[in-house]
Amino acid sequence: MGYHYQLKHLMDVVVVVVVMVTVVMVLQVVSGSGYGWERFAVVPAMNHSGALQTLNPLDYEDPSQRRGFKFKIQVSDQGEAGWQEARHMDSAWVRVLLLDDNDNAPRFATNLINLTLPEDTPLGHSLASFTATDIDQVSDASKFQLLDCNMSHNNGVK
Ligand SMILES: [Ca+2]
Ligand SMILES: [Ca+2]
């Protein structure tokens, strides 16, 4: 009986063989997958991840870029057929929106401003107003007033 008990339990022993498989994952931007795909690339990073990088400078002021980009990325664990084997792949959409930066100087409409004034123009009198434009969306067109330069020194006190 003891023999049978031992034999039964010996047969219950399950031998587990752990095969360590090194999975190499690769990522890529899917060619032609959407708007702006050619501006980005995925480069290998740590721990089976990839880092999305820009290949060209981005510019919010470029009308073709202002609405952003949308394209697909793929990951594959490189089954036997590589990128051809759907069960070893996944994909995701990436949407990129640009935030405007104040990276352009404001501009006057002209570089020469001519004024003709009577010599008895009162101090502090508004002489003219000018509008400058700025293509950055972070600021609206700004108005400037040219005032008599003595106003700030006298400050209205005699
Ligand atoms: Ca600006
Ligand atoms: Ca800008």
Characterize the structure shown.
The chain has 158 residues and is mostly beta strands. It has 2 domains: 23-96, no CATH class; 107-154, no CATH class. Helices cover 9% and strands 29% of the residues. The longest helix has 11 residues, at 2-12. The chain starts with a helix and ends with a helix. The model is unreliable at 151-158 (pLDDT under 50). Bound molecules: calcium ion (2 copies). One calcium ion is lined by residues 102, 104, 106, 134, 136, 139. Residues 25-108 form the Cadherin domain. This is Putative neural-cadherin 2. Keywords: Calcium, Membrane, Repeat, Transmembrane, Transmembrane helix. Its main location: membrane.
Concise account of the structure shown:
With 158 residues, the protein is mainly beta. The chain has helices at 2-12, 151-154, and strands at 26-29, 40-44, 50-54, 69-76, 89-96, 107-108, 126-133, 142-147. 9% of the residues lie in helices and 29% in strands.
